[in-house]
Amino acid sequence: MPLPPVSELILTTVLACLTAGNWRIAWRPAWLRMATGAFFFVLLTLLTVKTSGPPVAPVFDTASMAIGLWQQGLVAAWWILGGRLVVGLLRLPLFRERGTGEAKLGSDLVAGIVYIAAVLAVVNFVFDLPVRALLATSGVIAIVLALALQNTLADVFAGIAVGIEHPYSIGDRIWIDGAIEGVIVQVNWRSIRIRTDGNDIATVPNSLIAKARVINRSKPTTRRDDAVQVSCDASAKPDLVMDLLRQATMLCPKILADPAPSVLLSRIGLRSNSYDIAFSVAHTDHLGAMKSLLLKEVLRQFRYHNIRTSLPAGAAVDGLASPLVETLTPEQLLAEIPLFAALAAEKRDALARTMVRRMFEPTKTVLSQGEAGAGLFIVASGVVEGSRMMAGHSHVVGRFGPGDSFGEISLLTDGPNPGTLVAVTRCILFELRRNELQPLLAAEPRLAAALEASARRGQAFLARDAAKAASAPPGPPAQFLAQIRAFFKP
């Protein structure tokens, strides 16, 4: 016997509230959606039991067609809302950060199964239709569709398998066998989309990914390890070459110190030896630039130590290579520096004879921040690190290698050194003292302009590098320019 039916108005009001409530909270937080859904489900359960009995065995009012239809709608709504609540509960363990755009293949599959079960329950319990016949008919249709869509289904099931394993996610950088590399921008049921380094979008079906080799560049970290190989003539001592190659890595700011770069002698020959330099960078975006910079620094080290990268073809091995030198001569060193390129050769040689050779062991201080500048220093060999004290902490500004110079700002302004210079490796420096350089600058306007431009570039770099320096600033631009002009006066 059916329970006494409630009025059609109450049923209409309940169904309208259910529809409006679920629509209003569609974009609300998950906890609010779950709480509201549970409230409506409890309310709907009470109404369903009172009007039609248990939802698995409902009894509808046959005297009034309108009331009977609304009772059927009420029970159908109970099954659908119950299925939605179950899907929400099952998705909680799989909940991921919103805004990723990633298709939750596993949870979507579970949701589909639950909703299909809810629809079949409605067909069986509400409309009293034979479910077995429906399933048999749908099975035949499923076989036909599977044969027609076998490639698409292969992508879908491969996507499900990959989604369960979860080897990558949105934003990861991956490499796929077949020279496809880039950042994942979308994952869906059939494929993934990758933004390549050429700013193209590559769409790769899931079935191909399931069979291919995939390397995730972002996990467990974004760090990238790589190596370059360089060759030089066999007459160069391996210990010296390996030390110079390590110094070249020190001059590349984005090469990580941990793990430390390594240098190996990989091949020996009659004419040339090969060396492998292994290094790491924090991100793939830095890799190309650091490989290029590292090779440039290697060439610079070889040039300033007179090491050939290769021997001329057909030349004899014995006695051909230039003799190895600890550093270039002062004359050769000045000729290599663009700052003194405008000087005539005889004036440059005369200036070179006034240079003072100084040697520093590792960790020895070359210049201290705040002390008076003595002259212009030119690095002939080794690596020097510059740092500044800011807010009570030492901050590394940069490093200098063979051919670099420093000290222009304090030399021209007669002010204190803006930073501290410390030898990282065994270093050989040449110093041009102020009293030796001042008469030449007064007589050579082009050299004076070049030195002034170098000093101003150095000041601009320091200003960008630190908002506040512990040492006294050199003053406003007008005052700084006046100090430089005063230096050039005889």
Shape: elongated
The helix content, as a percent range, equals 40-55%
> Main sheet: which strands, in order across?
4-3-2-1-5
CATH superfamily of the largest domain, by name, is Jelly Rolls
Largest sheet, in brief, is: 5 strands, antiparallel
- Gap between N and C termini: 119 Å
The name CATH uses for the topology of the largest domain is Jelly Rolls
Low-confidence stretches: 1-6, 95-103, 313-322, 467-481
- Count every beta strand, where a strand is a DSSP E run of 2 or more residues: 16
Mean pLDDT: 77
Instruction: Please state roughly what percent of the residues sit in beta strands, choosing from under 5%, 5-15%, 15-25%, 25-35%, 35-45% or over 45%.
Output: 15-25%
Reading off the top of the CATH hierarchy, the class of the largest domain is best stated as Mainly Beta
Q: If helices are DSSP runs of H or I spanning 4 or more residues, what is the number of helices?
A: 15
Assign the structural class, choosing from mainly alpha, mainly beta, alpha/beta, alpha+beta, or little secondary structure: alpha+beta
Domain Cyclic nucleotide-binding: 339-441
Membrane topology: Multi-pass membrane protein
Protein name: Small-conductance mechanosensitive channel
Keywords: Cell inner membrane, Cell membrane, Ion channel, Ion transport, Membrane, Transmembrane, Transmembrane helix, Transport
What does this structure look like?
There is one protein chain. The chain folds into four domains: 8-148, no CATH class; 164-216, SH3 type barrels (Roll); 224-304, Alpha-Beta Plaits, CATH 3.30.70; 330-488, Jelly Rolls, CATH 2.60.120.10. A hairpin with a 2-residue loop joins strand 12 and strand 13. The chain is elongated, with a radius of gyration of 38 Å. It is built from 15 helices and 16 strands. The protein has 490 residues and is of the alpha+beta class.
